[in-house]
């Protein structure tokens, strides 16, 4: 059985989403589509390969899609539960990285701090993949733009509005949007904007890809004419103690029927999940025909299988 030639990744690690240029992201989406269309053609592509899956925070989608993904490529994922103690407590992160490099062909890690991933990558001799940190969630953003590409046929000048907290998911969406020529508009309350340095980096990349990135205060302005409206929780994992205060601050940033009316008539609703129904999004939008949240969840599997093929083959 023939499979597509697997493109070689430019960088062996996927820590931020800035590693891959537009050409490489296109190759990732082509491979994701082929893996989705013809899963049997890849069923032994990673035979004999092992993946360590380290999670410091809870997960449904990321854990299951990486485990199912590795298994369906003929490989094996080994789950290392770090939800009860921090990585680096029992043994230093450099020593964890050096040990794992003796036995596995890749490390996927969900961590509290981006610097933990950077340390793993510095001391591991195998690829390290960010499965969510305080800063970024690149696997989510790649899957989401793959979903948008399936839906709209092109990402060039696609109008994506992100409403809510300028968090890890927002930063990764910006980073990928800027590399595929999308037009991204973000609305956050004051003090919750994505960091100026990441905005500047994304705006620089967007100029090259002929996309754009604009930051708004008003959700209505950001959503006007958007083809996709995206939101995420107002308090991320690790910020639970701020949840009550944030619920007040973000109250006018809810994605509901009134806000969605400002978007384009064919606009879709997106969320990385888990969603807090009744907070950042209403049931009426989550459960509407515009909602593509479960397409996003499904595509985590296909896009991550493509990422694993590109980094672990
Ligand atoms: N979207 C996402 O990463 O989901 P989990 O936290 O369940 O992995
Ligand atoms: N921003 C959320 C995303 C969860 C997938 C969090 O970090 O908890």
What CATH architecture of the largest domain would you give? 3-Layer(aba) Sandwich
Work out the radius of gyration: 19 Å
> Could you give the order of the helices and strands?
HEHEHEHEHEHEHEHEHHEHH
In the CATH hierarchy, the third-tier topology of the largest domain is known as Rossmann fold
Q: Tell me the count of domains.
A: 2
By DSSP, the count of extended strands is: 9
Instruction: Give me the secondary-structure category.
Output: alpha/beta
List low-pLDDT spans. none
> What portion of residues belong to β-strands?
5-15%
Q: Describe the strand arrangement of the main beta sheet, using strand numbers.
A: 7-6-5-8-9
> What is the CATH class of the largest domain?
Alpha Beta
Number of helices: 12
Terminal CA distance reads 17 Å
What percent of residues adopt helix (DSSP H or I)?
40-55%
**CATH homologous group name of the largest domain:** Aspartate/ornithine carbamoyltransferase
Shape: globular
Describe the secondary structure blueprint for this structure.
Elements: H1 22-37, E1 50-55, H2 61-72, E2 76-81, H3 93-103, E3 106-110, H4 114-123, E4 128-130, H5 138-152, E5 159-163, H6 168-180, E6 183-187, H7 196-209, E7 212-216, H8 219-223, E8 228-231, H9 243-249, H10 257-260, E9 268-271, H11 283-286, H12 293-312
Parallel strand pairs: 1-2, 1-3, 3-4, 5-6, 5-8, 6-7, 8-9
Helix pairs in contact: 1-12, 2-12, 3-4, 5-6, 5-12, 6-7
Bound molecules: phosphoric acid mono(formamide)ester and norvaline (NVA).
